Amino acid sequence: MKKFYVITLVIGLLLPSIANATDGYFGVGYGAQNKGLAGAGVAWYKYSLMNGNPAGNVFLGKQYQVGVGFFNPNRQYTVEGNPSMMPGTMGLMPGTVESDSKLFIMPSIGANWMINEKSSFSATLFGNGGMNTDYPTMTFGDQSSATTGVDLGQMFLGLTYSRMLGEKHSLGITLLGAYQYFEATGLSEFAPMSSNPDKLTANGHDNSYGVGFKLGYMGQLTDALSVGASYQPKLKMSEFDEYAGLFAEQGGFDIPSNFTVGAAFQVNDKLTAMFDFKRINYSEVASIGNPMDPMALPPAFLNPGGDPSNPGDYTPNPNHVPLGADDGSGFGWNDINVYKIGLEFDNANSWVFRGGFSHNDQPIPESEVMFNILAPGVIENHITLGCSKAFGESGKALHLAMVYALPATVKGYNPFDFDPEQAMLGNMVPNQTIELEMNQFELEIAFTF
User: Fold this and answer.
1) Is 427 exposed, middle or buried (0-12, 13-18, 19+ CB in 10 A)?
2) Which of 21, 96, 266, 338 could form a disulfide with 78 if both were Cys (CB 3.0 to 4.6 A apart)?
3) Which pairing describes strands 225-232 and 381-390: parallel, antiparallel, or unpaired?
4) How many helices (H) and strands (E) does the chain have?
5) Cα–Cα distances in angstroms (integers) from residue 434 to residues 96, 106, 340, in the given order
6) CA 42 to CA 231: how far, in whole Å?
7) Widest CA span in the chain
8) Mind spelling out the 3-state secondary structure of 210-229?
């Protein structure tokens, strides 16, 4: 217990380094062993400790694990087309801009204790995910800031009770304590669109807290086939008060619900195949799922036949829904399905080898590229490799995982800038295109004892 407390303190000191983007903004997996399988394994109890299926912990026995992940995200956006410079528009400077801050740390720690032969208790501390961008330019024309971007991180404390039902089935429940932080810079040009311009940008890091739970089931149907399922309802978080003029519902940023079902099949004594399906419901959180309505957000629109260069020919938009309002714009993310496959080869000679592939739907529609310059979570495919080396019969083992998120792009129009010639004819034709691009490499090392 003393070791657990000391390592937890060290991880707490590393919290400002947390940021990630994989299955949207959730991690592709949790813990080095699970990441080596691309996050598959809801039916495989061996790697359930670190935010896995809570029903699997009762089969682990007494176990401690500590790990640290290093990841390198590469994010950029490209704008094509010159800005129109018309009043009431927000044109962007053309060109390609890469985000700075390319190395992050994700620590984790977990411990499992047996209460008796049929039940266990565990405690874990892990990063759930997040998003970070740090563009060295005034992307949206904010003259008060030399950089533009956001910094979102999430950390969870999980307390799990797991119990066997007979010899081949189990249930588990995890009580989750959640902490997240957020900062935004370079957004002052959105002030006319905000319900609270003083709580829109450049207010430093703000904190948010919440409590929730996660349920799990695991069962062995035959000697070779196991199944599992887990469900985490939407987790209500306190508001980001310092960004009440940016996020919908006066700074609301809850954590969306998600569920996973899967199976593990032991092909032979050495090879096991795992298949998982995961669903993440981003649309149920207004600040994430609400789309940016190009007809509602601008504070004014051009009168039919008006002169785009004459501010007097613009009329206030009566349908304007400001940022931060209950129905205010968000990032417009779609709900996504995630499909995972993992293979594990155990040569029974102290070495275990893993590989995996994960594919998810694209969360960002083409219509939402403008705001998602800040959060370009466009990744769809991951390839992973991993291995473990055991040290005798002591239960100690070293684990390694490598994750490569393949490059992905989404391209769409800037909804706040229009072709000036077409605008004079009353046709609001987009004038610029925006392309978001991202790839990521991650390395995680963990030790079990």
Assistant:
1) exposed
2) 96
3) unpaired
4) 5, 17
5) 10, 30, 30
6) 11
7) 82
8) EEEEEEEEEEECCCCEEEEE
> For residue 13, what pLDDT is reported?
47
Please choose, from the candidates 151, 283, 155, 130, the residue with its C-alpha nearest in 3D space to the C-alpha of residue 210.
Answer: 155
What integer pLDDT is reported at residue 53 of this predicted model? Answer: 98
CB atoms within 10 A of CB 390: 17
SS3 171: strand
Partner residues linked to 226 by β-bridges: 220, 264
Taking the C-alpha atoms of residue 397 and residue 388, their distance in angstroms, rounded to an integer, is 7
C-alpha span between 98 and 76 (Å, rounded): 4
pLDDT in tens, 321-376: 889 999 999 999 999 999 999 999 998 788 999 999 999 999 999 999 999 999 99
Q: Under a CB-based contact definition with an 8 Å cutoff, are residues 353 and 344 in contact?
A: yes
Q: Is 407 exposed, middle or buried (0-12, 13-18, 19+ CB in 10 A)?
A: middle
Contact 251, 244 (CB under 8 A): yes
Amino acid at 115: I
Cα distance between residue 381 and residue 262, in whole Å: 19
Domain ranges of the chain: 2-448
Predicted confidence at residue 89, as pLDDT, reads 82
Among 373, 410, 408, 426, smallest CA distance to 92 is for 373
pLDDT lower than 50: segments of the chain: 4-5, 7, 9, 13-14, 16-17
420's enclosing H/E stretch is helix 420-424
Query: Do 261 and 228 meet the contact criterion of CB atoms below 8 Å apart?
Result: yes
The CATH number for 2-448, chosen from 3.90.320.10, 2.70.210.12, 2.40.160.60, 3.40.190.10, is 2.40.160.60
pLDDT at residue 373 in the model: 97
Residue closest to 253 by CA, chosen among 227, 280, 289: 289
- Which residues lie closer than 8 Å to 98 by C-beta, 6 or more apart? 74, 75, 76, 135
Calculate the alpha carbon distances from 150 to 182, 185, 375 in Å: 7, 6, 8
